[in-house]
Amino acid sequence: EKLAKPDPRIFDLAASRFGHAPGEMLFIDDNRANIESAAALGWQVHSFTDATRLARDPRLARRL
User: Fold this and answer.
1) What is the pLDDT at residue 60?
2) Residue whose C-alpha is closest to residue 29's, from 43, 14, 49, 10
3) Is there a contact between 30 and 56 (Cβ–Cβ < 8 Å)?
4) Looking at the DSSP assignment, which residues form a beta bridge with residue 32?
5) DSSP string covering 1-56, please?
6) Which is it for the CA torsion 19, 32, 41, 52, positive or negative?
7) Torsion of CA 20, 33, 29, 11, to 10 degrees
8) Alpha carbon of 9 to those of 22, 33, 56: distances in Å?
9) What's the pLDDT tens digit per position in 24-42?
10) CB 25 within 8 A of CB 18
11) What confidence score (pLDDT) does residue 63 get?
12) How many degrees, rounded to 5, is the angle at CA 17 between CA 9 and CA 22?
């Protein structure tokens, strides 16, 4: 693809390939620049710091 995070085009490509609107997608990462890029495009985001906090994220629970 010759694209890498945090380039917004990678998130546009992913949304297109997965067939979902950005607001329906949850992006999880530990890099602030990547989180900010996805959030600016309307993605739901989770800034990963540890597994316990991630497991408590209600957006993740809805998907399981």
Assistant:
1) 76
2) 49
3) no
4) none
5) ----TT-HHHHHHHHHHHT--GGG-EEEES-HHHHHHHHHTT-EEEE-S-HHHHHT
6) positive
7) 20
8) 12, 14, 30
9) 999 999 999 999 999 999 9
10) yes
11) 53
12) 65
**Residue 59 · residue 26 · CB < 8 Å:** yes
- CA R_g for the chain: 12
Token pair in block for residue 50: 């540890």
Query: What is the rounded average pLDDT of the residues 15-26?
Result: 95
The identity of residue 25, as a single letter, is: M
- Residue type for 42, please? G
Tokens representing 51 are 């597994």
Q: How many CB atoms lie within 10 A of CB 11?
A: 23
